[in-house]
Here is the input.
Amino acid sequence: MFGISLRNLVTCLLLVWLIPGAVAAQERAVRIAGVVSEERIEPLMTALAARLPGAELSYVRLSSAQIAADAKRTVAPFDIALLASPDIAVSIANEGFATRDAAAGAAAETQWREEVFGFWSDPAVMVLRQGAFVDRLPRTRIELVRALEQNTQRFSRRVGIVNIGIDDVSYLLASQDSIRTSLYWRLMQSFGAADARIYDTTDDLLAAFRVGEIDVVYNAPLSALLASGAMPADVQIVVPQDYVLTVPWTVLVPKGAPNLRGARIVLNVLQSPETKPALAAVGFTYPADFADLESLQRIELGPELLVFRDTIKRSKFLDTWFQMVVN
Here is the structure.
């Protein structure tokens, strides 16, 4: 009379039994995307797992461009993202693809519209080999410029820089430098005169420095230096005395996150004081008294970061940069 076969009845019972388990598993799974390697992020993942024993955490390394594209999907392939490029994070939020979280906004050191949250500011420093400089090491941009201009032969092919057309953080630092000091383009000219070596990534740049291929590195993120281990004995990490740019590392939750609740919990734990030792192990820490430097200039989160992301402005900026640096 009811038209239900034994096979259909069994199928229905299986669905009733399986679906709650599948839903529960989905709620436990939190997928984190980021721009750093799995090896480097491991201490943080371990700390998060210890704080969230019921969660099933996973991590995938993606480029900033991949994170930006995937965050705009109806169903994102991750629940929360860590970005080294705050301009890209602001762009995602500005286009309406980030989730608002008032509690996270109140807890964050810096935030924008309660959608993009900064959890650490990464200073850009110089890395110099002492033996390459006859006199004292340069401590300001003008001193570095003069050292390169007056010793072109000595520094020929001994200066390293990251390709700002490839690396998002390097592009951001270059654009921010250009609006903070009139010396920036003169500095790039001196790099060009020294026939600077250009690398695709900061990791490649630092690896070349370690093996003695270059003697001068400019605008290296401190976190990358700390994460890469101790430098040789004759190397100095120089904090520019004129000003130090600091780049906020940001975290956001895409609107299409499959596990929004889990993402909010991870976001809360990430901002807690108990997580700071794990962040330090990843490279997110300052040397003693570093945070008190008067020369720190923090790059603020906000729509002004979108100016240099304009296609025409970016193209012109890159053209000028390559004309200066590549002879």
In short: The first strand starts at residue 29 and ends at 34. The first helix runs from residue 6 to 28.
